[in-house]
Amino acid sequence: MTDNIKLIGKDGLRLDGRKADELRPIKIQAGVLDNADGSAYLEWGNNKVLVAVYGPREAQPKYLQNPAKAIVQVTYNMAAFSSDERVRPGPNRRATEISKITAEALENVILTNQFPRASIDVYIEVIEADAGTRCAGLTAASVAVADAGIPMMNMVSSCAAGKIDGQIVLDLGKKEDNFGQADLPIGLVARTGEIVLLQMDGHLTQDEFKTALKMAMEACKHIHGLQQEALRSRYAVNFADMDDGEAEQ
Ligand code: CDP
């Protein structure tokens, strides 16, 4: 993170025309893959993320099994074509880190103790990346886990706030992430206010941290509504489409 380009204009707007506390547009669709137990597709600005969930199923190899609860295994992957520079295929430190923090966030909400020795496998494929993919991945993964019918207390909603040109802003885009001063991605259980993911890159004062955290938490509450809406549209029964006999059954 360096700050050698101007990221906020004289009009107070950001490079893509957003206000400080404005999210990029988000679209979420649940149940997009036939071969997975649960799935979700999410577009967040120019990020495109596909998530497939399998399980609960017997954890393999057996030494991974926990007799008290299911394990949550997340594989985050950026497609080779997801960025303007080719991404080298296969695991790397960053993908391993994002997989780990996403699994830990989800373990807080999934009722793993109902499925001893099982594994819940979550595959996050980033098809296009434009900063904020860990938040996009975790948000979509929560919808996909719910879509798989896996018991969970609540969904996790995720979003980042950060600092650019000395100002706290929501949901950093790629240039803002590259040339800004700080990025603070969080994962929030919107219903309880519990924070299950908190990372920080760069520097913030205590006051800036509090402002950024509040901004990201508010955004997570909004995102939670979008996640619920995605599940509602997947499972809503449209009684108007049924003939009378069907509707009465
Ligand atoms: O994506 P997120 O912001 O969660 O993670 P990051 O490590 O802060 O990466 C920021 C952005 O850099 C990604 O969203 C991608 O757009 C880009 N990136 C890339 O193009 N190639 C990589 N190997 C890693 C990151």
Describe the structure.
The protein is α+β, with helices and mostly antiparallel strands. The protein has a single domain (26-237), classed as Ribosomal Protein S5, domain 2 (2-Layer Sandwich). Helix content is 29%, strand content 28%. The chain contains five helices and ten strands; from the N terminus they run E-E-E-E-H-E-H-E-E-H-E-E-E-H-H. The strands form two sheets. Strands 1-2-3-5-4 form a five-stranded mixed β-sheet. Strands 6, 7, 8, 9 and 10 form a five-stranded antiparallel β-sheet that branches. Strand 4 (71-78), helix 1 (93-107) and strand 5 (118-128) form a beta-alpha-beta unit. The longest helix is centred in the C-terminal third of the chain and has 30 residues, at 206-235. It starts with 25 loop residues before the first strand and ends with a helix. The mean pLDDT is 95.
